[in-house]
Amino acid sequence: MTSRTGIAPGADGELSIDDRLALLRRMLEIRFFEDEVQRLFTKGLVRGTTHLGQGQEAVPVGVCAALRDGDTMTCTYRGHGAVLAMGAPLDEAFGEILGRANGLCRGKGGSMHLTDLRVGALGSYAIVGAHLPITVGAALAARYTKSGAVGVAFFGEGSTNIGAFHEALNLAGIWRLPAVFVCENNLYGEYSPYASTTPVDTIAERAASYGMPGVRIDGNDVEQVRATAIEAVERARSGDGPTLLEAMTYRQVGHSRSDPAKYRPEGELEQWLERDPIVVYERVLSEAGVDADALASIRASAEEEVAAALERAAASPEPELGSRLEDVYAS
């Protein structure tokens, strides 16, 4: 069975060139998608705010490459990349952000609430840490139904200081649920640097108190992320319980579109731009024998696909007024 990127999770041996190009292409699609969303926002075409994750693409792409059909994922309001990495259509993701009828949630959720149950994306959540218990619930359901599915949650390091983080990991640890908790440590919780809010050196070390492995990895190395995620997913699927992964990465933009990120130390952004996961991986592929023309072709093809998806989304109508009462539930 293949993963969300078409790569066999847990396959023995080295990744093929085609597998590696698939990882690169998915990261490029997410990057170009985010760049377009930024442009749309500056043009006043995005209702509300949006939170972008340029620079963090290797984490969701690497982790989701370890998942298979039936697995589930939850993420934060900075979740475009995770939802796309699960396989959500580009045009429907654009449509949701633009408030169009073809959107993933029919244009009602917007940037912070991308959801696509068809691919196991159970939702992006604006309340910090609120989705962690939901992944625990998904993992419990998988255990109860014996589906063999694994639940994954992406979250920032700031979420680890929220009560829901403790409750979710504690319960998952006690019940040895098939879950993988992925901390995207981008060094800043909104505008606050990690060290100013968290008294431990690493998030991974917190795993010990919940009786699960904790692993810190280079979140800008997509192959390292994938390899580590495969181990964690296989551990969960085999009944050995959850894992906490701490992927060290960096958002190249501010917390939200209204944040110029002037709180960052001088030179920090430039240092991380040199470790841009896409640039780094293109260099890796070049060293592996992929010629410059092939890399340029992948980049151009991904950019064209994103542009075409945006065009389709922009052509979609806005939701009918009467649809505002659809998909609303009361008890």
Overview of this protein structure:
The structure is a single chain. The protein is an alpha/beta fold. It has a single domain (17-36, 47-313), classed as Rossmann fold (3-Layer(aba) Sandwich), CATH 3.40.50. Helix content is 40%, strand content 11%. The chain is built from ten helices and eight strands. The chain has helices at 17-42, 58-64, 80-85, 90-97, 132-145, 163-175, 222-237, 268-273, 277-287, 292-315; strands spanning 72-76, 121-125, 151-156, 179-185, 188-189, 192-193, 214-218, 243-248. A six-stranded parallel β-sheet has the order 2-1-3-4-8-7, with helices on both faces. Strand 3 (151-156), helix 6 and strand 4 form a beta-alpha-beta unit. Helix 1 (17-42) packs across helix 10, helix 2 packs parallel to helix 7 (222-237) and helix 4 packs across helix 10 (292-315). The longest helix has 26 residues, at 17-42.
What is this structure, in a nutshell?
The chain is α/β, with parallel strands linked by helices.
Strand order of the largest sheet: 2-1-3-4-8-7
CATH class reads Alpha Beta
- End-to-end C-alpha gap: 40 Å
**What gyration radius follows from the Cα positions, in whole Å?**
19 Å
CATH topology: Rossmann fold
Give the mean pLDDT. 91
Our count of domains comes out at 1
Element-level helix/strand string: HHEHHEHEHEEEEHEHHH
Main structural class: alpha/beta
Oligomeric description of these chains: single chain
CATH architecture descriptor: 3-Layer(aba) Sandwich
Uncertain stretches? none
As a percent range, the share of helical residues equals 25-40%
**Total of DSSP H or I helical runs spanning 4+ residues:** 10
Q: Overall 3D geometry?
A: globular
Estimate the strand proportion: 5-15%
CATH superfamily: Thiamin diphosphate (ThDP)-binding fold, Pyr/PP domains
Count of β-strands:
8
Largest sheet: 6 strands, parallel
